[in-house]
Specification:
Chain A: Pfam families: DUF5995 (PF19458). The complex is a heterodimer of chains A (256) and B (965). Chain A is an all-alpha fold and 256 residues long. Chain A contains 11 helices and no strands. Chain A has one domain. Among the domains of chain B are: 193 residues, Rossmann fold, CATH 3.40.50.300; 50 residues, no CATH class; 85 residues; 190 residues, Tetratricopeptide repeat domain (Serine Threonine Protein Phosphatase 5, Tetratricopeptide repeat), CATH 1.25.40; 65 residues, Winged helix-like DNA-binding domain superfamily/Winged helix DNA-binding domain (Arc Repressor Mutant, subunit A, Orthogonal Bundle), CATH 1.10.10. Chain B is 69% helix and 4% strand. Chain B is flat. Classes of the chains: A mainly alpha (256), B mainly alpha (965).
């Protein structure tokens, strides 16, 4: 019998992932429980690279939840569905990884693989998670949400404004990724193969989120064409994975 | 022709087959629905399981219909269902002539369907009736493979039937390829919503484990496997049954297969095919499955005998399967593998032969297939008419999403250089494509097509602005839509009729934006324009409604009412059914909505319902009018009547938003009656319909869920429902939000009172914040809106005080609010709470008694069971007699049977003892029974004396022993 993927907390994580949260409070609850489990993972107790991302994501989602309660967004229906659908993709990736499925997005598996390694630093780890989540998961989450709400991704709408409002939340919560690191980020980004144009300027989160919006529009247009859609998915996965691997390489360490 | 090579046993799925069978058949209550969705990666055995379960269900007496969805992007609406019906028709032997005629009748219905207003809903209804006849009382099971390719119409049909709206006992078993769900597939959200329902299961089909892998491999090989080989199969297959089977076969036949993915396996096998078989497999891969034998024969052009041999070889190499209706690739991956094998010229030659063969013979999905093949054959000029025909065909079945895709394809084809400029009217294609896009919610696309149409000069300026405004309004972009209507009104080429139309629609838009004064002005303008133009009755009705509502909101209710009444007269005189129906609808909405003249509104709605039924609009407008009547009756407290009306409305088997409205209305009644099962069922049905998309109605759904949970004592569940609602509600809908917030605060107050669940202080704080926000926003709202909100806010204040010192004055205010609006249910509830608060303070006990009796009487009239029982409980505790009869008995209690040992106790002492046995302190008992702590002490010592005990524990033991006996 091979050792379970999640070591001593395997059972707990499998049980947690069996449930599919359907609203934002439930997502926050899920992430909270997951955090408690991840920090119990050996050998690094409290310094699991995934926990670094999860913690950041929990903070951000909690802020989004507060924003929903406090009437911060124009179209909370859109935003809450997006948040749930967005999170569902992270949980899906974890589920696939748990099953050792070859279908695990490469964008995520490059971070999951590091779980056992001692060489990952918190900031690059969190950044690699943010990268996978935003560059790969977000465009698809957007498309599913719009499809469900019988609406569509159009620039300048209420939904677009709410979506951009999240940038502010990211900016508040990731001071480490803000201006001070910008130059180094760009250096890294410039080295990534592929869509260099997309990574070309601005703050990472804000800019990649905008890329995600544009990618969502791209996917939206080909969503009825399974082959084109699958091709787009492959492309985004490879690009995000390449950036993720770079972030987690020794080069990424110099971010911190 | 069943494939004779498919002999491997089904391994490791026995439990699954059993549980799916019971979920779909044995555990389904009479008249209910159920669904199981199987997800899993390619080759994990989904199709095999569908077959296996299907056979089990058929043996158990169910009627099983089987279809699969197609991966050509331009399929036609409801294709999988039609395919299932045709297959079933073919299967039936002549002995079942009656059933067979029912199947034919349903197929005939599809053939004759024509597009019309509300045609989509009516089609759903007719499909469910047809299925009902086919089932002949047997449980019906619909099995759908490859659901990831399902068309929108079929998706909606499934949700309609699963919601129970078709009044059909139906189970659905569907397989979805897991890989497809990873992207942005619409089924993702649908499954997330559905999996929360008790009647739906989403099962993830995992690969086989080590032991099952070995078992399957052993079965295929036909003998024990060497340990090393077994290990290798396990390592290489990762437990994927398809791969295991193939690897084991290689082992058995002494082949040294190197392939361990599906793709490689197929590739190796294609390479090994004899030449003719190779041709056949390529031909099927280029076709639309199932490829009929006659069609294949024409495409591959082999002599009959050679063709049959080639097919046999392809089947033996496990690439092709045959069935009565034609040939399919064993797996869709084969097509992907083959795609890279052919030269483009070879591929287009194949498509050309398909197209030519199909041109000369009518077949299933005729036009869609023709368009598909001609296009891929590189013959846009010949594909174009087929694409247009396919679009019209889809529209006939109300499949606007599919129609839009065919129209778009037609546009692309028309642009191909090979197509002459005059083959087809391009502006007409643009107009059709834009309209279809608008109908299926592709707003941006509709607008883009309209721009192109404008550039092509296909429309007058005014007509263009009006249409653009309509599309923008549908997309929710109101500000831009308003601008477009204004431009339409300013356009030079605007006819008087168009001007009236634009003004009326603009008025309606402004009303929705809450700009009542502007709306009124525009509506008057529209009415003037329409008066000068004969036949603009629809404009009159629309503008009158806008004016009526704006007057009502601006606090001149009589003027608004007069306008709307006149519009109804005009509509009746002109006699167009739709106008009459709309006029009734708006009048009833005005009365029961902002004017709160409920009794009259109910009368108008019911009269209107009768009238529109005469006019032949029963399904649509009658249903909507009856929904208004139901909600009005609920509020004025005539629940029994409301129940009758809602049942009558549901007889039309409505769909979509109409259905949701009615189910929510019925659920509201069930929650009031305390009929938990019925309420639960309706909530699940609503959730099922809403899983298909759309977000309106979610808050009322959650509010009802919270209300129901509270009657069940599940305050934690009520809290969850409210929290979800708070995070998903648009704050401009203040009335709906106010009701939700009240439910949230009530849940916390009840949790506090019952001590079953810890009060969530953060939740309380948030709820109070939202209540304040609602109060602030409602100050700016029109008087009628404010009225409703004030009622709920009064309830909120009072519930908050219940967490603290429970001020009876706040409850009195709530009583006054609801009495004023003539809503007995919340008024009765508030009386109960006021009485409770008074009793807790041991002040004005007589007033409390009076309030309780009033409340009791109101609740009795309504039939509100849970409320009545709460009133009774309080009355018993406080020793208040609820009716005259009881009063004359002097408030003697009605304690249930008690054992001998307790016989010496008085009724009051028994009550105290019961509380002691619950572990309450004297202080707590005092609070519950509204007497002082000291008096409780006296009661307790009397109890100890009479029972001859010395401790509370001993006393409790005696109580529990006797109560059980």
């Amino acid at each position: 019998m091979t050792e379970p993927v999640w070591g001593p907390v395997h059972r707990d994580i499998v049980d947690l992932l069996a449930d599919h949260p359907a609203d934002v409070p439930a997502v926050v609850d899920h992430l909270t429980k997951l955090q408690d489990m991840l920090v119990r993972l050996p050998p690094l107790l409290d310094s699991c690279p995934l926990a670094d991302f999860n913690k950041l994501y929990l903070t951000i989602t909690t802020t989004v939840l507060d924003g929903l309660y406090d009437d911060r967004f124009v179209d909370p229906v859109f935003l809450s569905r997006l948040d749930v659908e967005f999170a569902a993709r992270y949980f899906d990736a974890l589920r696939l990884w748990t099953d050792s499925s070859p279908g695990t997005p490469k964008a995520w598996s490059c971070l999951f693989e590091r779980m056992r390694g001692p060489d990952a630093r918190p900031l690059p780890s969190a950044a690699a998670g943010v990268n996978a989540h935003i560059n790969f998961d977000l465009p698809f989450a957007l498309v599913t949400t719009f499809d469900h709400l019988e609406s569509e991704p159009v620039d300048g709408t209420d939904q677009h404004r709410d979506y951009l409002e999240i940038n502010n939340i990211f900016a508040e919560k990731i001071p480490g990724l803000r201006r001070g690191y910008l130059e180094r980020w760009q250096l890294l980004i410039d080295m990534v193969n592929g869509d260099i144009d997309d990574w070309y300027q601005g703050e990472l989160v804000e800019y990649t989120r905008d890329v995600a919006w544009r990618n969502a529009q791209k996917i939206w247009r080909c969503r009825h064409d399974p082959a084109a859609h699958e091709c787009e998915r492959g492309r985004l996965d490879s690009t995000a994975a390449a950036l993720g691997r770079l972030l987690l390489s020794p080069l990424g360490a110099f971010l911190q | 022709m069943a494939s004779d090579v498919d002999t491997a046993p089904l391994v490791g799925r026995a439990d699954l087959v059993k549980s799916v069978r019971s979920a779909l058949l044995d555990d389904v209550a009479q008249g209910h629905t159920a669904a199981v969705f199987l997800t899993g990666e390619s080759g994990v055995g989904k199709t095999r399981l569908l077959r296996e379960v299907g056979a089990h269900l058929r043996d158990a007496g169910a009627l099983v219909l089987t279809g699969s969805c197609l991966d050509i992007g331009d399929a036609s609406p409801l294709h999988p269902l039609l395919q299932a019906l045709r297959r079933f028709d073919a299967e039936l032997s002549t002995s079942h002539t009656r059933t067979s005629s029912a199947v034919r009748a349903l197929l005939q219905m599809f053939a004759e369907e024509t597009a019309g207003p509300d045609g989509a809903g009516a089609l759903l209804e007719r499909v469910s009736r047809g299925l009902h006849l086919i089932a002949e009382g047997r449980p019906l099971v619909l099995i759908l493979d490859d659901l990831q390719w399902v068309d929108r119409s079929t998706r909606q049909l499934l949700l309609y039937l699963l919601a129970g709206l078709g009044d059909l006992q139906l189970s659905v078993l569907a397989a979805v390829r897991a890989e497809s769900l990873q992207g942005a597939h619409p089924l993702r959200r649908v499954l997330t919503e559905l999996r929360r329902l008790r009647t739906v299961q989403v099962l993830d089909l995992a690969p086989l484990d080590r032991a099952a892998t070995e078992q399957l491999a052993t079965a295929v090989v036909g003998g024990t496997l060497p340990a090393e080989a077994a290990e290798q199969v396990w390592q290489r297959s990762g437990g994927n049954p398809f791969v295991i089977e193939e690897l084991a076969r290689d082992l058995r036949d002494g082949r040294d297969g190197l392939s361990d993915t599906l793709r490689e396996i197929f590739l190796a096998r294609v390479d090994a095919l004899p030449q003719h078989a190779h041709t056949v497999v390529h031909a099927v891969a280029a076709g639309v499955e199932p490829v009929e034998h006659w069609l294949l024969a024409r495409v591959v052009r082999l002599p009959e005998q050679e063709l049959i041999e080639a097919v046999r070889a392809a089947v033996a190499h496990r690439l092709l399967v045959g069935a009565d209706d034609g040939y399919r690739l064993r797996h869709r991956l084969v097509a992907e593998v083959l795609e890279h094998e052919l030269l483009p010229a070879e591929r287009s030659a194949l498509h050309r032969r398909y197209a030519e063969a199909l041109t000369s013979a009518e077949a299933e999905l005729h036009q869609a297939r023709l368009a598909h093949h001609w296009r891929l054959a590189g013959e846009p000029a010949r594909a174009l008419p087929a694409a247009v025909a396919a679009a019209q065909e889809a529209e006939r079945l109300h499949g606007y999403a599919e129609a839009h895709r065919h129209w778009s394809a037609a546009l692309q084809l028309a642009d191909a250089p090979a197509v002459g400029p005059r083959t087809v009217d391009r502006t007409d294609l643009l107009r059709q494509a834009a309209e279809a896009a608008h109908h299926c919610g592709e707003h941006a696309r509709a607008l883009a097509l309209l721009e192109e149409l404008a550039g092509a000069g296909g429309m007058s300026t005014c007509a263009l602005h009006i249409r653009r405004a309509r599309y923008l309004a549908a997309a929710g972009r109101s500000a831009l839509a308003e601008e477009e209507y204004r431009r339409a009104l300013e356009a030079d080429d605007c006819t008087p009729r168009e001007r009236a139309t634009a003004a009326a629609h603009l008025a309606e838009l402004l009303l929705h934006l809450g700009r009542y004064a502007d709306a009124g002005r525009r509506a008057r303008e529209a009415l003037e324009l329409a008066a000068a133009e004969d036949g603009s009755v629809s404009e009159v009705v629309l503008a009158s409604a806008a004016l009526g509502f704006s007057e009502a909101y601006l606090e001149d209710p009589d003027a608004g009412l007069a306008v709307m009444r006149r519009a109804l007269e005009i509509a009746e005189r002109a006699g167009r059914p739709d106008d009459v129906a709309c006029a009734y609808l708006h009048l009833a909405e005005l009365l029961t909505g902002p004017l709160n003249i409920l009794e009259e509104g109910v009368v108008v709605a019911r009269r209107g319902a009768e009238r529109v039924a005469e006019l032949g609009l029963g399904r649509t407008y009658e249903t909507r009018l009856l929904a208004i009547a139901t909600n009005g009756l609920f509020r004025v407290g005539q629940w029994a009547e409301a129940e009758k009306v809602v049942a009558a409305a549901l007889r039309h088997r409505p769909s979509g938003a109409d259905a949701v409205e009615l189910l929510l209305a019925r659920c509201r009644l069930s929650v009031g009656y305390g009929d938990i099962e019925a309420a639960d069922r309706d909530l699940d049905s609503v959730a099922t319909v809403l899983a298909g998309g759309g977000a309106r109605h979610v808050i009322p759904l959650l509010t009802l869920r919270a209300g129901l949970a509270m009657w069940q004592g599940r305050h934690d569940l009520a809290r969850q429902a409210v929290q979800r609602g708070l995070t998903e509600s648009r704050s401009d809908d203040v009335a709906i939000l106010a009701a939700l917030v009240w439910h949230g605060l009530r849940a916390e107050a009840e949790a506090h009172a019952s001590r079953t669940v810890e009060v969530d202080r953060t939740a309380v704080r948030r709820l109070r914040d939202v209540a304040q926000r609602v109060a602030r926003k409602s100050e700016k709202a029109a008087r009628p809106v404010r009225n409703v909100v004030d009622g709920f806010l009064a309830l909120c204040d009072a519930e908050v005080s219940r967490l603290d010192d429970n001020d009876p004055e706040l409850w009195a205010r709530s009583v006054a609010e609801w009495d004023r609006r003539n809503h007995p249910y919340p008024a009765a509830y508030s009386r109960l709470r006021q009485a409770e608060a008074l009793l807790a303070r041991r002040a004005r006990v007589a007033t409390a008694g009076k309030l309780l009796r009033e409340s009791y009487r109101m609740a009795q009239v309504l039939g509100a069971v849970p409320l009545t029982s709460e009133i009774r409980t309080l009355a018993t505790r406080a020793r208040v007699a609820l009716d005259e009869r009881e009063q004359s008995r002097g408030g003697r209690d009605v304690t249930p049977v008690v054992g001998d040992e307790l016989a010496t106790l008085t009724a009051r002492e028994r009550e105290v003892l019961a509380a002691v046995a619950e572990g309450l302190t004297n202080k707590e008992i005092g609070q519950r029974l509204f007497i002082s702590e000291r008096t409780i002490g006296v009661h307790v010592s009397h109890i100890f004396d009479k029972l001859q005990v010395r401790t509370r524990v001993q006393a409790s033991a005696i109580y529990l022993r006797n109560r059980r006996g």
